[in-house]
Specification:
heterodimer, A: mainly beta, 7-stranded mixed beta sheet, 4-stranded antiparallel beta sheet, B: mainly beta, 5-stranded antiparallel beta sheet, 11 strands, about 0% helix, globular
Chain lengths: ~110, ~110
Amino acid sequence: DVKVTQSSRYLVKRTGEKVFLECVQDMDHENMFWYRQDPGLGLRLIYFSYDVKMKEKGDIPEGYSVSREKKERFSLILESASTNQTSMYLCASSLSAQGKTQYFGPGTRLLVL
Amino acid sequence: GENVEQHPSTLSVQEGDSAVIKCTYSDSASNYFPWYKQELGKRPQLIIDIRSNVGEKKDQRIAVTLNKTAKHFSLHITETQPEDSAVYFCAASRQWATNKLIFGTGTLLAVQP
């Protein structure tokens, strides 16, 4: 059974803080993704990684960076949190190649004050 | 860039009725179309998908149809049950190597008992 976990379910941070969100998968998946979920906007891709140390920008990368030092772990970094980054963040992983199911983590609800 | 439009944003049906959710994609090169279901407070999960070489696919009470000429695809749920209540996301993909998906904005389906 695929397991994707995220470091926190809820997080409260202050404007300007550096925030780390971590995602770990245990299925040896090559691909990992970070999405942001906002009401009425669906799931928007922030960044994805198709291999260790490899990353590609998604549709809304501004204000974010990522790190993938190990295959099982994909981190999302908010360099200087802002209130407009208050959102639900979802991590996902999949095998490489099109058509492979993306397995999602439980999500981290981030509130930036 | 690539875009997926999804309608309606909310849908309320009586138990036992059918529900239809429609999506339109912009990139004619898209060739893989999954549907994800997200129950309240849970993570999104794949429920059905279709590839561009197929016009229709069924799995028990759910079916997906694809019209490549018109660039739209639809999710059909028959004999709806309260447990079908959830947010449904359509998605499209053209990148076979990275499995990158472009998601629609979601449809909140409420099945009234």
